[in-house]
Amino acid sequence: MAKRIDVSGLSAFYGSHRAIDDISMTVEPRSVTAFIGPSGCGKSTFLRTLNRMHEVTPGGRVEGKVMLDDENLYGSSVDPVAVRRTVGMVFQRPNPFPTMSIYDNVAAGLRLNGSYKKRDLDGIVEKSLQGANLWNEVKDRLNKPGSGLSGGQQQRLCIARAIAVEPQVLLMDEPCSALDPISTLAIEDLIGDLKERFTIVIVTHNMQQAARVSDRTAFFNLEAVGKPGKLIEIDETERIFSNPSVQATEDYISGRFG
Amino acid sequence: MNTTPTVPAPPAEPAGPPPSAKGTATRPGDKIFLGLSRGSGILLLTLMAAIAAFLTYRAYIAISENEANFLTSFEWNPQGEPVEFGIAILVYGTIVSSIIAMVIAVPIAVGIALFVSHYAPRRLAAPLAYVIDLLAAVPSIVYGLWGALVLVPYLGGMNKWLDQYLGWTYIFDKTGTGPARNLFTVGILLAVMILPVITNVTREVFLQSPKMHEEAALALGATRWEVIRMSVLPFGRSGIISASMLGLGRALGETMAVATVLSPSFLFSGHLLDPGGGTFAQNIAAKFNEADEFGRDALIASGLVLFVMTLLVNGAARLIIARRKEYSGANA
Amino acid sequence: MDRQPATDTPAPGTLAHRRMPRWAPAGLALASAALGSGLGLAAGWHSKVQWGLLAAIFFVLGTYAITTAVEGKRQAKDRIATSIVWVCFALAVVPLASLTWTTVARGVKVLDGYFLSHSMAGLNQMVPGGGIYHAIIGTLEQVAFATLMAVPVGLLTAIYLVEYGKGRLAKAVTFFVDVMTGIPSIVAGLFILSTWVLTFGMGPSGFAGSLALTILMMPIVVRSTEEMLKLVPNELREASLALGVPKWRTILKVVLPTAIGGITTGVMLAVARIAGETAPVMLLVLGSSFINNDPFSDEQASLPLYVYQEYMLGTPYSYDRAWGAALTLIMFVMILNLVARAIARWKAPKTGR
To answer: Which of B32, B111, B192 has the CB atom closest to C85's CB atom?
Structure first.
C-alpha cells in the first residue's frame, strides 16, 4: 500500500516569488518523516507540492520532479485529482465539512470515487474511525454533525476521512498546532499506529514532537526573509537531534535561533 | 487623529460617572446628540408606520365603495357605474412574470457568481465583478426602453418558435399575431434586470466560503465541481435564497420596465405569449393619468397589496440572512 | 483490502489518465457553434439567439459525451459544470452588452450641446429637435432636495445604531431599515400621494417628488453609513474617550472623519440610485415640456420621466430623444458610481494590511 517518494530538483513559486528552491530528498515507505524549520522556510509549501495542492493557491507553480514509486506526479498526463486521491492530507486546523454528519464526513471521499453498497460503506467508515482511534467516542452519534466534536476529535475525524480512501501517503500539516496537550498525545499515538500502513510526512513546529513521532527528520531553513527556503539536511531523527552534520541544524535544535 | 488634543477639558463635574457606551448621557452635548440620533431612528420607524397607515386609510375609502370583490374581481373600473375594481388579474400577472424572472435569473446568477468566484481567470474576475456591480445601478427606465424597442422585436421570432413547437403545452400557445408585448417578455426583461442584483449578493457569499473546507475536499481528490458541491454550495445555500428573495422583491415592484413593454388588459388569459395581463406597479402607472381622486384611492388600494407582498418577501429574506449569521457564528 | 472497486476510477496505483488535449473545450465550442449556426441556417431561423442556444446545447451535450468516453464520468461532470458556468456567463453578457451598446449607439445620434441646453417648449412629437435642459434642471433639483433631507436623517440613524443602539429600539430600527430598502419606488410615490396630495391637498411639484425620493434614499444611506462606521476600529473611540473627550465629540471629531470616505461613497451611490427613479416622479411631479426652476410649485420635468414620456409618444423623433436622454441618464449614474468607487478605493483600507 505505502509508496516511496523521490523528490528531485523541486522549486515552488508564488507568482514570481520563489518560495522553495531546488529540493531533493527521498521519503521512505511505512515510516514517519518530519519536516522542521523556522516559520516561512517553506516546509508547508513543500508538503503541499507532494499532493499538488500548491498549484491550487492563486499564482502557485512548481518546477521539478516528484516520483511516487515510478510515476512522476507532475508528468504531463497525470491528473492532479487522482494524485490527491492517492496522497491524502490532514490540515493545520481541523476542517470537517460543517453541513455533513460524522458518518458522511468519513464517507465523503469514498462517495466521490464511485458507488458503494450501504453495508460496505458502513464497514469502511467503522474501520476508518477505528483506525483514527475515534470509533468508541462517536459510534453512538454517527449521524450528528461533525462540527459538534471537540477540536482533537475533529482532527481525528479528518484523519479518518483521509485514510478512508486508502491513500498511499498521508501528509500532515502541523496537525496538532490547534490542539491541547491531551489531544496532541492522542494524535501522536495514532501516527505511531498509522505508519504500519502508510507513508507519513508531518510538518511540525514542535521539535519534541518531531523527536517523538518521526523516524527521519528533514531540516529546512532560509537565508533571509524573502529568500527561498532550502532543505539543509535530512537524516535519521536520532542523528539529527544528537549529532547533526550541519552547524545550522544544531543551532536550530539547541534553540540558538528560530 | 490630530483633533483629539484640541478638545477642551471635560466640564466641571469630576466626580460624574465616565461616559458609558450604553448612552447614559450626562452632558448636554451628549444628551442633544443622543436625542437627535435616536430621534432619527424613531422618525424612520414612524415613517414606516405612516406608510402602512395612510395606504390602509386611503385603500379603505376606496374599498368601502367597491361593488365587486376586491380580491377576486377581474374588472378595473373604479370610476364607472357601478364602481367595480379587483386585483385578481394583477396578482396573476405580478406572480407569473416574477416566477418567469426567477426561474431564468436565479440559476444563471448562481452560474455567473460561481464563474466570478471560482472559474474565471483572476485577471478577468475582478473587472467582471466591477462591471456587474455597475450594471445593477442602471436605472430601470433604461431597461424598459431597451426592453420595448430592442427586446420585444427580437423575441417575436422566439415567440413564433415557441408557439410552433411548444404550443401544445397551452401556456406557450399564441392565439394572436401581435408583437411580443406579453408577460413572457416581461419575465425575461425582469430576469435581465435582477440578474446583477442576485449575482452580486451570491458572489459575495461564495467568496466567503471557507478556504479550509474547499481544501479538505480537494485533498480528498475532488474535482472542481465536486469541491463546489461539497463545500461552496452548502455554505452558500441560505445566501442564494436570500439573494433570490431580494431579486424577487425587485421584480414584484418593478414599474417602468413593465409599463413600457407590456400591452395590458384586464382580460384573463393563460397563454403567456398573448399580449395582455398586468402587474400591480404597471397598472398604477398606466391608470394614474386618467384617474380622479377616487380612482387614485383605488390604485392606492392595489399599491397596499403590493406593499404587503414586498414586505413579506423582504422580511423573509432578512430573517434568512439573520439566521445564517447566527449559524455561522456558532461554528466559527 | 476487501473494498468494492470503484466503478469509474482507474485501478489504484496509476495516476495517469487518458486526458483530453488542452484545446478540446475550444475546439468543441467552435464545432458546436458551427453546427448550431449551420442547422439554424438550414432550418431558416432568423433569430441568432436561437442559433446560439442550439450551439450551447450541442456544446454541453458534446462535452459530456466525449469526456465520458475519454476521461470518465466524474471528469465529464466537472467539465459539464465548467461549460454550464461559462454558458451562464455568455448568456448574461448578451443582453447586458446589447443594452449598453444600443443606448450608446442610438443616444449618441441626438446627444449634443443643443440637446443638453434646450427644452421641449413649443415642440410636438412629430418634429425632431428639442432637448432635455428642463429635465436635467428638474432631476437635479429633486435629487438635491431629497439628498438634503435623507442624508442627515440617514447619518444620524446610522450613528444611533452603531454608537448607541443596543436595545429593542435599535433592533426594530435595523429590521425596518432593511425592509424599507425593499419598498418598491411606486409605493413610496403612492404614500406621498396619499398624504401630501390627497390628504393635505397640495398640488404636484418637484418637492413632492423629492419627498418620495427621500423615503427611498434614507434606508440606503443608513445601511452604507452603518457599514462604514462599523469599520472604524474601536481602539480609536477608546483612545479618544480615555482622553476625557465626551462621546458626542468623539463621534463628530474622531469616528466620522475616519469613515468620511466610505460615507461619501455610500451617499453618492444612493444619489445615483434615486436619480434614475421614474415611478414616484411620474405620480407626483407629472412632467412638463417647459423649464420650471421652482421645485415648490407646478409640474416639473425629470430625466427618467422624460425618457418614459418620449417613449410613449411613439414617433421616430421621440424615440431618438428618449435614447438621448437615456444615455445622458446612464452617463450621470455611471459617473457618480465611478467617482464614488474611486473615493472608496482611495480612502478605504485604513485598517487593512
So the answer is: B111
Residue in chain B nearest A110 by alpha carbon: B220
Chains that touch A (3 or more CB pairs under 8 A): B, C
Nearest CA in chain A to B234: A99
Nearest to B149 by CA among B176, B184, B181: B181
In a domain, C5, yes or no: no
Give whole-number Cα distances, A139 to A130, A190, A214, C209, in Å: 10, 18, 30, 67
Average model confidence (pLDDT) across chain C = 86
Model pLDDT for residues C173-194, shown as the tens digit of each residue: 998 898 888 899 999 999 999 9
Nearest-angstrom CA–CA distance, A103 and C269 = 48
* B55 in C contact zone (CB under 8 Å): yes
Buried b (16+ CB within 10 A) or exposed e, B309-324: bbbebbbebbebbeeb
Strands A199-203 and A60-68: unpaired
Here the ipTM equals: 0.86
- Report d(CA B26, CA B76) in Å as an integer: 59
Nearest CA-CA partner of C218 in B55, B313, B285, B46: B46
The CA-based angle C152-C154-C155, given to 5 degrees, is 65
Beta-carbon contacts of B109 under 8 Å, excluding residues fewer than 6 positions away, are B194, B195, B198, B199, B202, B243, B247
Tell me the chain C residues in contact with residue A86 when contact means C-beta distances shorter than 8 Å.
12, 15
User: Any chain C CB within 8 A of the CB of A77?
Assistant: yes
Whole-number Å distance between alpha carbons of B85 and A56: 62
A134 — contact with chain B (CB < 8 Å)? no
CATH number at C261 reads 1.10.3720.10
Domain holding C242, by residue range, is: 133-347
Of A53, A99, A113, the CB nearest to B218: A53
B→A contacts (Cβ < 8 Å), by residue, are 122, 210, 212-213, 215-223, 226, 230-231, 234-235, 331
pLDDT tens, position by position, C233-274 = 888 888 888 888 888 889 998 899 888 888 998 999 999 999
Gap from C167 CA to chain B (nearest CA, Å): 9
Distance from CA of B231 to the nearest CA of A (A): 7
Return the CATH number of B76-331, one of 3.40.710.10, 3.40.50.2300, 2.40.10.10, 1.10.3720.10: 1.10.3720.10
**pLDDT averaged over every residue in chain A:** 89
Q: At what angle do helices C185-192 and C206-231 cross, to 10 degrees?
A: 130
- Whether residues A77 and C9 touch (CB distance < 8 A) is answered with no
The pTM (predicted TM-score) of the whole model is 0.85
> Does residue C184 share a domain with residue C94?
no
Residue of A nearest to B225 (CA): A112
